Amino acid sequence: MKKQIVHIVNIKRNGEKTQFQIKLPLDTKKITALKITAIPQVRKYLRKVEEQLPIESEVGWLWLRIPEQRDVFYADSVKRVLPLHNLTISNHSPIDDFAKGTFWTQGTKEEFFSINVAVKTNIIEGYYIDRITTGNENYKLRIYLTLEV
């Protein structure tokens, strides 16, 4: 049986280094997929610059490991999503509106990163370093885990 859990880490200042633990259900056999999101607020004077650049900017670095194995099973740079990612735009004058809909969506679907990590304990350790250098950002780092129980 598959189960999904979400762990949220609050980031309160620039350059913050955070160590945390994620508690898994006791009957967890393995981790099959994960997804990481972090969407910090953009200050008003940076918003115009960011909208002109169609690139993802780095938010931070994340490492996840199982304590008893002392091995990092996931390490990656966390990126801010593009400003127009999954944007819903109103469709005012549809040309061929067969379904009589009024909205359409632009963007790509976010997908989970597929992994296969056997788990014998119910704790995952995490370490996160914030890499935002402008402003005083408060945001939430969300870690979505798909588990096989």
Question: How would you portray this structure in words?
Answer:
β4 and β5 form a beta hairpin. A four-stranded antiparallel sheet has the order 1-10-3-8, with no helix packed on it. Strands 2-9-4-5 form a four-stranded antiparallel sheet, with no helix packed on it. The chain is globular, with a radius of gyration of 19 Å. 6% of the residues lie in helices and 51% in strands. The protein has 149 residues and is mainly beta. It has one domain: Jelly Rolls (Sandwich).
List key phrases describing it:
149 residues, 1 helix, four-stranded antiparallel β-sheet, Jelly Rolls
Principal-axis shape = globular
Rg is 19 Å
User: According to CATH, what is the topology?
Assistant: Jelly Rolls
From N to C, what is the helix and strand string? Answer: EEEHEEEEEEE
CATH architecture: Sandwich
Structural class: mainly beta
**Strand order of the biggest β-sheet:** 1-10-3-8
Mean pLDDT: 77
Give start-end ranges of low-pLDDT stretches. none
